[in-house]
From TrEMBL:
Protein name in the entry: Reverse transcriptase Ty1/copia-type domain-containing protein
CDD domains: RNase_HI_RT_Ty1 (cd09272)
PANTHER family hit by this protein: GAG-POL-RELATED RETROTRANSPOSON (PTHR11439), RLK (RECEPTOR-LIKE PROTEIN KINASE) 8, PUTATIVE-RELATED (PTHR11439:SF455)
InterPro entries per UniProt: DNA/RNA_pol_sf (IPR043502)
Top-level division of the source organism's lineage: Eukaryota
SUPFAM superfamilies on file: DNA/RNA polymerases (SSF56672)
Amino acid sequence: MQSPTDDHFTAVKRILPYLKGTVTLGIQFTRGPFTLTAYSDADWAGDTCDRRSVSGYCLFMGNNTIAWCAKKQATVARSSTESEYRCLAHTAAELSWLRMLFKDLQIPLFHVPTIWCENISAISLASNPVFHARTKQIEVDYHFIREKVLHKDLQVRHISTVDQVSFSYLSAVC
């Protein structure tokens, strides 16, 4: 700041006491395996006003939550599979970004990242390159998750609804 104003000084006066009072607060990471894991879930047509689905995911590095998101999908999904697949695509994009960040920081990953999803049809769609006759309504750009799975950049696994971690993020958006 080359020429601070009175507003800047006022802001600093408010920030400094806050920083002093929160010095002991922070995110604590536990030791554990250095693996990237994600949980992905969608609430198909969950918004009763416009019937758009809500996507949610959370990413873990070992046992530590490092990223999470819950947001309404941009378009109406025609099936629960489409809704879950869109959510998988967003989760895969976040995982891909983290992998690139770790690569740039020269942090090796010894395991393929895993996305846990409860929708078996969405998992099949991500894993099976010929399973697409009924999914033409899903935009082409969402099929990049299939490419990530085929190149073994990540894997998508099934998890029961009871064990789904990311579901708790969805209710905050609806």
